[in-house]
Amino acid sequence: MTAVTADTSVMKALRKIRTPQKQRNREFWLLLFACAISGASLTLVQLGALGTIDPMILVIGGVLAVLVFALHVVLRVVASDADPFVLPIATLLTGLGIAMIYRIDIAKDLTGWAAFSTKQLAWTAISVAGAIALVIALRNYRVLYRFTYLSGLVGLVLLILPFIPFLKARGSNADVWVSIAGLFSFQPGELAKICLAIFFAGYLVRTRESLSSVGKKFLGITWPRMRELGPVLVVWILSLLIIVTQRDLGTGVLIFGMFVAMLYVATGKTSWVLIGLAGVAAGAFFATRILAYVRGRFTNWLDAFNPDIIEKQGGSYQLVEGIFGLAHGGMIGTGWGQGRPYITPLAHSDYIIPSLGEELGIVGLFAILCLYMVFISRGLRIGMAGQDDFGKLFATGLSFTIALQVFIMVGGVTRVIPLTGLTTPFLAAGGSSLVANWLIVALLLRISDGVRRQPRVVIG
Description:
Blueprint: H1 2-18, H2 22-49, H3 55-78, H4 86-107, H5 116-137, H6 148-160, E1 178-180, E2 184-186, H7 188-211, E3 216-218, E4 221-223, H8 230-246, H9 249-267, H10 270-290, H11 292-302, H12 307-311, H13 317-329, H14 352-385, H15 389-413, H16 431-453
Antiparallel strand pairs: 1-2, 3-4
Helix pairs in contact: 1-3, 2-3, 2-4, 3-5, 4-5, 4-14, 5-16, 6-7, 7-9, 7-15, 7-16, 8-9, 8-10, 9-10, 9-15, 10-11, 13-14, 14-15, 14-16, 15-16
């Protein structure tokens, strides 16, 4: 009987693959296009920087194609109604990031495991494999609702991990890294944002009635009562504690911004957004008065081209070099392998946007931002299309996390806002960030499939 059951399961899986699936067929062709652009980028990097083509890098880059198509096949079997745009966009952004990191490695003569592109390929394999495992294991995303408070606890524990003496990584400006036996390091805050998104979504589903209750009107806006301000104050204080104790301005802003966005979606009250903006402004004001490194970030932002600030330790040299790189690229860029992005410190991670802008120009950078815009809009659409409150808030929180992270990084390196220590999703070198972002891809795929299969289910 076991053999018969196994054969039946295999036949059902094969039947699902053979059955015409409009969404998956669209995804297939978009994936082919994304892999073709990524492969062409690697080839052009070699031609521009080396004047020759090394087939080995293309073989290594083919690993990305194999893995994403494996995820595509899994979606055909277990999530045939998932959104067809999320996976190709994530693939293309990851491929462009690998090509840019590889270009920096060539300039610095880094090869083998010392090369950041090799590590990024390895982390990409781990990230996509993790996304495949999550899609297979999480048959119904609604089960996460049961673990609302556990997810919040796990998120807090992940944020606290860098304070544990034998786990704390040495040599970093911010206390956000954890080292495992000295073999590898990761940022637990990247995974914490997913856990906290689950917690916020579940908490707001349970308390949205009280949060959206009628309060007093002032200046034409209905403001919540003081007892409803408690959650916002707690998250605001948590964000400030992260900034103060970990010297991590970016994560604090990201967590607080994600919560306020989900709070607005849950209640529909503009007053919560205004309270959130007031909290950010108040936090920034006090942080600049109390914390020297935050004050330095604002000084570098406001007076970046002052020679004294450029030359001082921790000054605006990195920011100015990135801006000069963008100016050097101009409208259409210097071309893959033809610029000098490696002059800017951390050109492969924090400053990968100026690196891409120098070699692809404003036009290429605008195309990348459009990819992010489509990715985020699909995530928001996934949330708004669903009828259950938990899925709506969860998908919105995940999408807004990506949106806010892109805004913070792009705005920071272009001097729109003060620079913080986040990474650009999918593009920048960094294993923990890449893993977290691909897990977000898997969650959005699962939510979109569940929304289309059971649009009438309501939770809460």
